[in-house]
Specification:
Layout: E1 4-5, H1 7-23, H2 25-35, H3 40-55, H4 63-77, H5 82-97, E2 103-104, H6 105-123, H7 133-148, H8 153-169, H9 194-213
Antiparallel strand pairs: 1-2
Helix pairs in contact: 1-3, 1-4, 1-9, 2-3, 2-9, 3-4, 4-5, 5-6, 6-7, 6-8, 7-8, 7-9, 8-9
The protein binds adenosine-5'-diphosphate (ADP) and magnesium ion.
Residues 32, 36-37, 39-40, 43, 80-82, 85, 119, 123-125, 131-133, 178-180, 193-196 line the site of adenosine-5'-diphosphate.
Length: 223
């Protein structure tokens, strides 16, 4: 089991994220059309495509540098609520990772928590408000638990991605209290929150990237 993640993984994550967002662009737009303005998929697709363009320009050497690039690009290219929120998440993760070349399970759990805290600081949503926080907070809790058991980065990410998926599903019956969907009040119930869905997709892409990054992670057992 891969104990650490590195720059090759971060590069693979952002590329996998761009691919999965592009693949789910229509689904995310449709979810957002039901309770918002129908642009969530295209917003994120534009942002992650711009990230990949920048990745192709010059290599970076730490996960933190990749996260910073993602943050800056999302903040400048993505309008609406999600751009600044995801931008803040990546920026906080970048700060937590600093200049480290290798990130272990504990550090990764810390970075995920910092990312979530950034979204909360910016958007002021709580669990149950039917936002991406309903995916992020269970993910952060699952990551912390996995890391507390001494597991490596791969297992921490897997736990986070799985919890985010369950968290996204949990938004179905909720009435939105934050963001555009809150304008619909009770009528927002019965639909899944698009930002919670995209959050789960992004975390699953982080898991998939571990395999894609392959040798870059060395397959080490270092926890
Ligand atoms: P907009 O609502 O401006 O069109 P998007 O469609 O790109 O932006 O993103 C909508 C998503 O953003 C929602 O599904 C929700 O998950 C998330 N969101 C909106 N407001 C908040 C907030 N205050 N806190 C956390 N997430 C939020
Ligand atoms: Mg929208």
């Amino acid at each position: 089991m891969t104990g650490i993640v590195d720059a090759a993984w971060a590069d693979a994550w952002l590329r996998a994220a761009a691919a999965v967002i592009s693949e789910h662009r229509k689904e995310l737009n449709d979810l957002d059309r039901a309770i918002g303005d129908g642009d969530h998929g295209e917003n994120l697709d534009r942002g992650f495509a711009a990230i990949v363009e920048k990745l192709d320009e010059s290599p970076l050497f730490t996960p933190g540098a990749y996260f910073k690039l993602a943050a800056m690009t999302l903040m400048s290219k993505v309008g609406g609520a999600a751009g600044p929120l995801y931008g803040t998440a990546y920026l906080r993760a970048a700060t937590t990772c600093g200049d480290a070349k290798e990130i272990d399970g504990a550090k990764l759990a810390e970075a995920l928590a910092a990312a979530r805290d950034g979204v909360v600081a910016r958007g002021k949503a709580e669990v149950g408000d039917k936002t991406m926080i309903d995916a992020w907070t269970p993910a952060v809790d699952a990551a912390a638990e996995a890391a507390g058991n001494g597991t490596g980065a791969a297992e921490v990410l897997k736990a986070a991605a799985q919890a985010a998926q369950t968290g996204a599903e949990s938004t179905d019956p909720l009435v939105a209290r934050k963001g555009r969907a809150s304008y619909l009040a009770e009528r927002s119930a019965g639909h899944r929150d698009p930002g919670a869905v995209s959050s789960a997709l992004l975390l699953q892409a982080a898991v998939d990237a571990i395999e894609q990054a392959g040798a870059g992670n060395g397959g080490t057992d270092k926890a």
